[in-house]
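Dear colleagues,

As part of the handover before I leave the project, I'm documenting each prediction I ran so the next person doesn't have to rerun anything. This entry is a single chain, and its sequence is reproduced below.
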Amino acid sequence: MAETKVLERKPLSLAERSNLPQIVSGLKTTVSHMFRKKVTLQYPEVRPTLPEGYRGVPTLVHDPHGREKCVSCQLCEFVCPPKAIRITPGEIDPEAETAHVEKAPKEFEIDMLRCIYCGLCEEVCPEEAIFLQDVYSMTGYSREEMVNNKEKLYELGGTLPDHHYKWDKKRAAEDAAKARGYAHS
């Protein structure tokens, strides 16, 4: 059998029993912070500078012509980890200017209480319709106020430049096909 060895502990000193060294160490840290230069911002008039790559509130954006860029493909809804996005697809009126494009969202909601600001919705969007804006102070008095509907998302997002003008190219190609008599049905 293994032999059990009893170890003798040395007794605590007076300073160790009274916790004075720990108290003095904490006070030293507090006093050193008291004399450092402090930065005070007059929020909300003066806002802090945000770091590069900051991911803020997801919003919907219009193209430069004021058209909806979202085509209700629902990829953002499927990729959202906390399931904060809900899209109800809708049809575009056949007489509308954008009838040649695709479908559009009838309803588009993002629950900001569930959103984790991961940015996956922006990355997966094939139409570049979702952008993360540098808005970081979302407030509301109820849960319903924290659910951004389609109108609020477009209001927050605004209009961003479009570098590929895909819809204009489709429209021009379709008009050229009609002129040659090759219209699609």
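Strands lie at 58-60, 85-90, 104-111, 130-132, 147-148. Helices lie at 14-18, 20-34, 75-79, 120-124, 150-157, 166-180.

All the best with the project,
I.
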